[in-house]
Amino acid sequence: MYQPKKYKNDNRDFIYGFIKKYSFSTLILQGKELLATHIPVLAKGSADDFVLYAHIANHNPMREYLADNQETLLVFHGPDAYVSPRWYSEPEVPTWDYTAVHINARVQLQTTAELQTSLIELIEQSERGKDDPFNFREIPEGIWKENFKEITGFWLHPFKMTGIEKLHQGFDKKDIDTIARNLENRSRCPAHNIADLLRIKNDTSD
User: Fold this and answer.
1) With contact defined as beta carbons under 8 Å apart, do 20 and 76 qualify?
2) DSSP characters for 20-47?
3) Mean pLDDT value across the chain
4) Could you say which architecture CATH assigns to the domain 5-169?
5) For the chain, what are the domain ranges?
6) pLDDT tens for each residue of 129-141
7) Residue-wise pLDDT tens digits, 5-24
8) What whole-number distance in Å separates Cα of residue 55 and Cα of residue 167?
9) Phi and psi (nearest 5°) for 70?
10) Inter-residue contact 26 to 56 (CB < 8 Å)
């Protein structure tokens, strides 16, 4: 990942928290050509020592190349937004603010028991906080068992982690506030998320 120094954030707490918050990831690996798929990826452990885990459908072309010790790249995307030159007090160029984390990891295929536990954890995490959360036990046993014939689960052991927060660091706080207000006035939710991050990163939230 290209990381200009002022935007670089490889802090383990930031990376771990980012993965927990933005768990829907792009998984990339090398087959006969570069392959990518989009899947939820969960983290287990702590910021200092964690492992990731996920699953894909067996009919996914990536499955053929998914093997123990295979290197993969995971791209976790946070919010992003276009920033107009009209939002600065002095002439500037347009830009795009965003946050992201990249993880290079090695694959370890899961056992059937590990896959079952992983799916239960994925369902429970996704249902958490809902008024009427779904319980995996509501899935008929036959359908639950049949599902495992169609998917492959795997662990992802990180060996390189990089993060970026491109959020107008170093700009005048008046401009930061103007940019954040303009983003908040847009209807697209990700723009509002960037506005929140801008205020937090540049301490203009008061």
Assistant:
1) no
2) HHS-EEEEEEESSSEEEEEEE-EEEEET
3) 91
4) Roll (2.30)
5) 5-169
6) 888 888 888 888 8
7) 999 999 999 999 999 999 99
8) 33
9) -65, 130
10) no
